[in-house]
């Protein structure tokens, strides 16, 4: 395990609307912690307009020791995309509805606990993926789940209930789509219910599509759910929620360092929860240990 480090100058990027949570008290907590530990800090509140450019300028102008993303997966994605390839670590205080990456990294979902990372932490280098130029740190999909994510993002309702409702509506009528996949060591050609490009493990809903994936091993997985009879759906869902999807006869996994996916039916794609338009040819590149993240110390590591 790496040595604990101390950050003296931190930028906190706060999304004021993420997770529908009032952040006033959180700002006071940050101020208290930073004062107590002699940490200089700045807060940037996102507006939804030009946030990435503004944060980029700030990072270039100041000498930060860490940049924290405080919000949901969208906020994490913006900040992470600016830090990949640099030594500057990404801190995450999860406040969205899914918070998938932070869960896979073992970051506390309780805000008070997560804030302790500001003064007590370790740093770990993780892999990131580039999918036709889009950064993916967590999980990206083609197929059924991508369609549900797209409808969810376009709909007015948030939260797990809305997601489950859309999934149920789409499930009965959904037909698997055709894909051709070439990796550095394997190929696949045929239909699939969904194709997940997995740098990490579980979706924000806790459905674990890649239970044995390791986020810093220089490899990623393409996880396929192959066509199955509708009646088998409940069994697959059960396996997803009990970390045992690898045992399903409908699950197939290609572990690789690079891949090209031909999305032959032009199915919907999402990258880390955000629907995106892509060419039929999708190239996936691995950037090994390209992002430093701030992680909590386990109890026995603290002073
Ligand atoms: N002040 C703001 N007003 C309106 N929209 C904003 C503001 N700041 C950021 N946004 C938008 O918020 C979105 C990102 O939200 P984020 O993912 O952080 O939270 P969330 O949607 O609540 O969480 P999750 O992605 O986990 O569901 C982006 O689309 C961004 O443009």
How does the overall form come out from the CA principal axes?
A: globular
Number of strands: 16
CATH class of the largest domain: Mainly Beta
Find the structural class using helix and strand composition.
alpha+beta
Q: Mind describing the biggest β-sheet? A: 6 strands, antiparallel
N to C succession of SSEs: EHEHEHEHHEEEHHEEEEHEEEEE
What average pLDDT do the residues reach?
93
Small-molecule binders here are: adenosine-5'-triphosphate
Number of helices: 8
Rg result:
20 Å
Fold and architecture overview:
GO terms for molecular function: kinase activity. Pfam families: DAGK_cat, YegS_C. InterPro entries: ATP-NAD_kinase_N, Diacylglycerol_kinase_cat_dom, Lipid_Phosphate_FormReg, NAD/diacylglycerol_kinase_sf, YegS/DAGK_C. Its EC number is 2.7.1.-. With 303 residues, the chain is an alpha+beta fold. It folds into 2 domains: 9-127 and 290-301, 3-Layer(aba) Sandwich (Rossmann fold); 134-288, Tumour Suppressor Smad4, CATH 2.60.200. 25% of the residues lie in helices and 33% in strands. It is built from 8 helices and 16 strands. It has a 6-stranded antiparallel β-sheet, with helices on one face. The two termini are 15 Å apart. The model has no long low-confidence stretch (mean pLDDT 93). Residues 15-19, 46-48, 71-75, 96-99, 273 line the site of adenosine-5'-triphosphate.
């Amino acid at each position: 395990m790496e040595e604990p480090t101390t950050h003296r100058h931190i930028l906190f990027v706060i999304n004021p609307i993420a997770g529908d949570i009032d952040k006033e008290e959180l700002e006071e907590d940050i101020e208290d912690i930073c004062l107590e530990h002699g940490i200089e800090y700045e807060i940037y509140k996102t507006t939804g307009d030009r946030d990435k450019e503004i944060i980029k300028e700030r990072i270039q102008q100041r000498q930060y020791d860490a940049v924290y993303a405080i919000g949901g997966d969208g906020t994490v994605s913006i900040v992470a995309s600016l830090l990949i390839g640099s030594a500057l670590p990404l801190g995450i205080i999860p406040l969205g509805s899914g918070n998938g990456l932070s869960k896979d990294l073992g970051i506390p979902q309780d805000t008070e606990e997560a804030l302790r990372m500001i003064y007590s932490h370790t740093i770990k280098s993780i892999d990131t993926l580039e999918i036709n130029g889009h950064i993916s740190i967590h999980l990206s999909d083609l197929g059924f789940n991508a369609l549900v994510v797209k409808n969810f993002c376009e709909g007015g309702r948030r939260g797990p209930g809305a997601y489950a409702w859309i999934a149920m509506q789409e499930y009965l009528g959904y037909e698997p789509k055709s894909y051709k996949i070439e990796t550095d060591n394997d190929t696949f050609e045929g239909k699939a219910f969904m194709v997940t490009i997995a740098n990490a493990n579980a979706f924000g809903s806790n459905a674990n599509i890649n239970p044995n994936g390791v986020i810093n091993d220089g490899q990623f997985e393409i996880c396929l759910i192959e066509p199955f009879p509708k009646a088998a759906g409940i069994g697959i869902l059960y396996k997803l929620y009990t970390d045992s999807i690898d045992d399903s006869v409908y699950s197939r996994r290609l572990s690789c360092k690079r891949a090209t996916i031909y999305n032959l039916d032009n199915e919907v794609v999402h990258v880390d929860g955000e629907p995106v338009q892509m060419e039929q040819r999708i190239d996936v590149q691995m950037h090994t240990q390209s992002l430093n993240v701030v992680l909590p110390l386990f109890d026995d590591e603290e002073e």
